[in-house]
């Protein structure tokens, strides 16, 4: 089996369905990994696994998981997830969306299979991802007065605490969990952690209030992509009242901030003060 092109993806535009030709089926443990020419499915990104994979059906067969794969041009071995031996987007490699199924889909008579993403699950994850970006910007603003030195700013001009300190981000249905490291490196960059524990409830309130303002503003959201390939460098855009902001992002999103409904931001500091966790939750109407 030789795969001669990267998978084309339509999920950045919000697609949840389509049809495509099967170009290969590879083993994924005791399951099957189905590869097609074009797909609406969002796979787990092994390099920054923040947004979980889409689920749904392919050729009428349930898609249990969806992972990123890669195969060298002219090669036959498809590497999956953490076993991919090269950096994402390396030239000379094809980058693939691998739909994991319990059984392979039946061979279609016309060469194409129907793909259907679980739209409710997708929407829940899209809401969580949109809220995650907005909450990060709100947290940056709420912590802006804790910097003694200049660091790179976010799209709204605030010191970018989120990108400077983040160690992990996980999108959940209608929410997210972001963990930040408050170590010596961050302090050397100018962040002041003194009195953070005492001030944390007020910081959370400010971040939550800013997030609620942006939801009420009904700001438009979109994902820009320079091309349809899986490895295209996509960007999240939101036209907030303070100005337009962009964040590199390979996930899926809602189309307007008002779709998030109500929102809460919770901040938790570890016992030793070395980690800050932000929990964001939204409840669409």
TrEMBL record:
InterPro entries: Thr/Ala-tRNA-synth_IIc_edit (IPR018163)
Lineage top rank: taxon: Bacteria
GO MF entries: nucleotide binding
UniProt-recorded name of the protein: Alanyl-tRNA synthetase
Lineage start: Bacteria, Bacillati, Actinomycetota, Actinomycetes, Streptosporangiales
């Amino acid at each position: 089996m030789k795969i001669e092109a990267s998978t084309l993806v339509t999920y950045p535009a919000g697609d949840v369905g389509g049809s495509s030709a099967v170009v290969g089926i590879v083993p994924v443990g005791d399951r099957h990994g189905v590869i097609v020419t074009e797909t609406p499915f969002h796979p787990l990104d092994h390099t920054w696994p923040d947004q979980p994979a889409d689920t749904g059906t392919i050729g009428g067969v349930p898609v249990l998981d969806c992972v990123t794969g890669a195969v060298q041009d002219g090669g036959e071995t498809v590497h999956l997830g953490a076993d991919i031996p090269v950096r994402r987007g390396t030239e000379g490699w094809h980058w693939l969306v691998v739909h994991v199924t319990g059984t392979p889909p039946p061979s279609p008579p016309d060469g194409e299979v129907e793909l259907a993403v679980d739209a409710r699950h997708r929407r829940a994850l899209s809401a969580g991802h949109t809220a995650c970006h907005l909450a990060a910007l709100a947290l940056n603003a709420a912590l802006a007065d804790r910097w003694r030195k200049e660091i790179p700013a976010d799209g709204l001009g605030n010191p970018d605490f989120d990108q400077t300190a983040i160690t992990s981000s996980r999108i959940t249905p209608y929410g997210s969990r972001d963990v930040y490291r408050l170590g010596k490196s961050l302090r050397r960059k100018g962040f002041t952690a003194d009195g953070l524990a005492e001030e944390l409830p007020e910081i959370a309130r400010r971040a939550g209030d800013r997030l609620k303002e942006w939801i009420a503003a009904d700001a438009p959201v979109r994902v820009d992509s320079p091309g349809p390939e899986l490895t295209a460098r996509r960007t999240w855009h939101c036209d907030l009242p303070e100005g337009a902001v962009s964040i590199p992002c390979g996930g899926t999103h809602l189309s307007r901030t008002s779709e998030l409904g109500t929102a809460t931001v919770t901040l938790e500091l570890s016992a030793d003060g070395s980690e800050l966790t932000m929990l964001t939750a939204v409840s669409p109407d």
